[in-house]
Amino acid sequence: MSALAATTADLSRWQFAITIIYHFLFVPITIGMGLFVAGLQTAWQLTGQERYQRLTAFFGRILLINVALGVVTGIVQEFQFGMNWATYSRYVGDVFGAPLAIEGLVAFFLESVFIGLWVFGAGRLSPRLHLATIWAVALGSILSAYFILAANSWMQHPVGYRIVNGRAEMTSLRAILTQGNLLEAFAHVISAAIVTAGALALAVSAYHLLKKNEVELFGHAARISLVVLLVGGLSVVTWGHFQGQLVSREQPMKMAAAEALFTTEKPASLSLFALGPSQNASGNVVTVPHLLSFLTDWHWYSKIYGVNYWQREYAKDYGPGNYEPIVAVNYWSFRLMTGIGFLLAGWSLLGLWLARRRKLERSRRFLRWSIPLLALPFLANTFGWLLREMGRQPWVVEGLLKTSDAFSHSVSVQAVAFTLVGFILVYTLLAAIEAWLVVYVVKRGPTPPAGEGEQPKQIELGY
Q1: 283 in any annotated domain
Q2: CA gyration radius for the chain?
Q3: Region of 260 on the Ramachandran plot (φ > 0 left; ψ -120 to 50 alpha; else beta)
Q4: Is residue 286 part of a domain?
């Protein structure tokens, strides 16, 4: 491969990585806050309590801002498949295109139509029908994640296909939509979205509690968000463990790199910390004996094959080449993602303990720290995608197509560089707009309560 082609491929990878990481900042909020707002509105319908009506409208505005910005940033990726990754699109389009088409025609259509009905149907639709629209929005975002993950999981573990004339053709949509890699990744992503929603709601509630704005209302919101954060934290850690076991079987090189395990061990120790994890720095680690073997398949003395073993095996199966991903990225992405999951679960337990002792609203230290902790789920989500995507390198489709062979050879370096800079500038502007709008809504607070003797009749979503 020429130096020019290598540069084009690298820039194309950077462009796609930046756009998808930025877009995925919105996805967990859409999924998690969709469920959160639907839950609040359901509570209002069941209890008739005005506080649930006001919280639904308040957090619903944050959801709407996020949906609008998320749609804009997600559309760009579809074009990149055909423009920057034409070889990839020709090779796997017959397989990859099906779940993406279903996502656009079913899930995205469902979400976009019903969010419009939810906004403009307030006060016009019956309360039960209006409630159904927000649940349809939540369902649409969940289905959207499922079908997109179906396409991505096929890249991680190809199933239900055959190679005809040098191209992959689908033989079983059912196999693609029901494989274990998809199901466990989906559960992990939904759990992460719930964590993100809980952390966001907690940070917003903490801000108002520190300002002593509507202490009763936001004290209640904080308690709800702590429960959501705990459920999501426990779920994301649990499903992350099961997903790790599955990946150890289907993509053993990825998990060996995530553990910085270069040589085969029986039993294998779990590395907790390493300074510059590499084959030459294997002694600079803090390990727990037997634990990696146990976590991999529930046996204390299992043999775990290392990076060097899988490098030799891959070279035998696929020909000469370097099949080792960037170990440091895998190693630290895995640990930071996992550590944040445990930290947030522990933070929610601390908050619930304070709430049980009726000290939550007065614990200014806990409330202050709850605001910057909002960054943690977004970092964990990013680390998770870095591990999932960079961990399978050098493959764009595991075992079938290398990333170095998948880009568009006809696209110039200058064109990719120009669009890369353009995307960075535009996305930075969109990020600033998103941040300003959310801060504006949060500072403005919820709508005033109904007057004495009045009952709230609808969800007020106006700004």
Answers
A1: no
A2: 24
A3: left
A4: no
CA–CA separation, 197 and 228 (whole Å): 8
pLDDT digits (tens, 9 = 90+) for 325-382: 999 899 999 999 999 999 999 999 999 999 999 999 999 999 999 999 999 999 999 9
| 124 phi and psi angles, rounded to 5 deg | -110, -40
Instruction: In whole angstroms, give the CA distance from residue 36 to residue 390.
Output: 31
Q: Is the dihedral of CA 430, 432, 437, 439 positive or negative?
A: positive
Question: What is the model's pLDDT at position 371?
Answer: 96
**Phi and psi dihedrals of 161, rounded to 5?**
-145, 170
Nearest alpha-carbon partner for 29 in 152, 178, 240, 203: 203
One-letter identity of residue 311: Q
* pLDDT > 90 fraction of the chain, expressed in percent and rounded: 63
Tell me if 60 is assigned to some domain.
yes
142 Cα distance to chain centroid: 12
Confidence band for 4, pLDDT divided at 50, 70 and 90:
very low
In a domain? residue 256: no
**Model-level pTM?**
0.91
pLDDT digits (tens, 9 = 90+) for 423-450: 889 888 888 888 899 999 999 999 888 6
- Number of domains forming the structure of the chain: 1
3-state secondary structure of 70: helix
Range with lowest mean pLDDT among 104-108, 172-176, 254-258, 394-398: 104-108
**Two tokens, residue 354:** 């304070």
CA–CA separation, 145 vs 399, rounded Å?
A: 24
- The whole domain housing 213 covers 3-251+331-444
3-state helix, strand, coil in the chain (%, to 5): 70, 5, 25
Cβ 81 vs Cβ 99: under 8 Å:
no
Element (H, E) at 167: strand 167-170
Whether residue 411 contacts residue 93, with contact meaning beta carbons closer than 8 Å, is answered with: no
